[in-house]
């Protein structure tokens, strides 16, 4: 039996779990473990995700039972928080590692990782880094100002609003924030993890 959830409930649940100090269930996976398994279309047959509510109201959705991240970057439609301009897979600069950070602006672990990354910006300046959230864009807009000023306005770093919940529908449903997904220049998944890691390990994974 499939269970339906409203996305606000999912967001609250993730935020609660992510901001505790229990790291025993943090998962790191590589493409070796998921080779040949493309979950980009899993659990979506017959689901119409068209926007039927006002832009600021999250529509009820069915949370897919995706147990592992997709092995290659799927098509998606996010929106730049600062400008509202649509951002898709075609807009990702080629030839670099690409990192998606699924986060909640109120999550302490997300704030801490962002602050640490900001202080080490020179080490990640050649990586595409995309912060993605389903939260209120007003909260997202001030996130870098509050917790990562060195990342604000950088050409390789973008804050993206997931208005239609594309991430959990097409990429993965994590159990903790922040959830980091590192894809290579070829678009293939290299590694991912949920929850907080040391900044040395984060940078090593981003740049490997």
Q: How would you characterize the overall build of this protein?
A:
The chain has helices at 7-18, 31-34, 108-119, 121-124, 137-141, 143-147, 166-171, 199-207, and strands at residues 28-30, 77-80, 86-88, 98-102, 128-133, 157-161, 179-183, 189-194. It is of the alpha+beta class and 208 residues long. It is globular. The termini are far apart.
What descriptors fit this protein?
alpha+beta; 208 residues; single chain; 27% helix; 8 helices; Glutaredoxin
Task: Quickly give the structural class.
Answer: alpha+beta
**Overall number of domains:** 1
Q: Strands across the major sheet, in which order?
A: 1-8-7-4-5-6-2-3
Helix content: 25-40%
CATH superfamily assignment? Glutaredoxin
**Average pLDDT number:** 80
Q: Give the distance, in angstroms, between the N- and C-terminal Cα atoms.
A: 41 Å
Strand content: 15-25%
Largest sheet, in brief, is: 8 strands, mixed
CATH architecture: 3-Layer(aba) Sandwich
Task: Determine the number of helices (DSSP H or I, runs of at least 4 residues).
Answer: 8
Shape, principal axes of CA atoms: globular
Instruction: Count all strands and give the number.
Output: 8
Indicate the low-confidence ranges by residue numbers. Answer: 1-17, 20-55
Rounded radius of gyration (Å): 16 Å
Name of the top-level CATH class: Alpha Beta
The SSE order reads HEHEEEHHEHHEHEEH
**CATH topology annotation:** Glutaredoxin
Secondary-structure blueprint:
Layout: H1 7-18, E1 28-30, H2 31-34, E2 77-80, E3 86-88, E4 98-102, H3 108-119, H4 121-124, E5 128-133, H5 137-141, H6 143-147, E6 157-161, H7 166-171, E7 179-183, E8 189-194, H8 199-207
Parallel strand pairs: 4-5, 5-6
Antiparallel strand pairs: 1-8, 2-3, 2-6, 4-7, 7-8
